[in-house]
Design goal:
The chain has helices at 27-31, 49-62, 70-84, 152-163, and strands at residues 8-10, 13-15, 34-42, 45-46, 88-96, 113-120, 130-137, 168-173, 178-181, 188-190, 193-195. The protein is of the alpha+beta class.
């Protein structure tokens, strides 16, 4: 089992993490060639499933991946929630282009890898200490508009924050405007209105 003690769903099967295996030639593992969605679970059901699937489909279009099979994903969600008994927490969906030959060009026939992992709710949020990361978010990059597996800028920002004794890092875009934190969307209340960076 995972540190959360919960099973995973991988390519059609509910498995213990010890049984689950990713192909060593998987492009998501080797190249970050894929997408993810983190979906909130409350009362044993995923919230806003349709919106998550719309964003996943958009990202797949950007990366020229086959359109996700939302019926299959809905069944996977149902099966994993039933197997895990999760009532409150999250499901992390990972979709990769699947295995391929060495090099950058994908194979002509793509066999995507689809993984769902469950996690129980985290403790309630508390105030955090933030620093501004020296790394910038490139708002012109194709990766800034999708939930890409390539998370290296955020990893480096989070490591930088930890080295300075902070809980997280603010990332600025290339224009110097606040974009997000290393792993969270920022929401501000300004003039009684909820606003978030674009």
């Amino acid at each position: 089992m995972t540190p959360t003690g919960l099973p995973v769903w991988l390519n059609g099967q509910v498995l213990s993490p010890a049984e689950a295996r990713i192909d060593p030639a998987d492009r998501g593992l080797l190249l970050g060639d894929g997408l993810f969605e983190t979906m909130r679970v409350a009362d044993g059901a995923v919230r806003h499933f349709t919106l998550h699937m719309e964003r996943l489909a958009h990202g797949a279009g950007v990366l020229m991946l086959p359109p996700p099979d939302t019926d299959r994903i809905a069944q996977a969600v149902h099966d994993l929630l039933a197997a895990s008994g999760l009532q409150s927490g999250s499901l992390r969906l990972t979709l990769t282009r699947g295995p391929g030959p060495r090099g950058l060009l994908p194979p002509p026939r793509v066999q995507p890898t689809l993984l769902l992992a469950a996690a129980a709710s985290l403790p309630p949020a508390t105030p955090v200490r933030l620093v501004t990361a020296t790394h910038r978010r490139d708002e012109e990059s194709v990766l800034s508009r999708i939930k890409s597996l390539n998370y290296l800028p955020s990893i480096l920002a989070r490591m930088e924050a930890a080295s300075l004794g902070a809980d997280d890092a603010l990332l600025l875009n290339r224009a110097g405007h606040v974009a997000e934190t290393s792993a969270s969307t920022l929401v501000a209340v300004i003039g009684g209105e909820l606003l978030t960076p674009l």
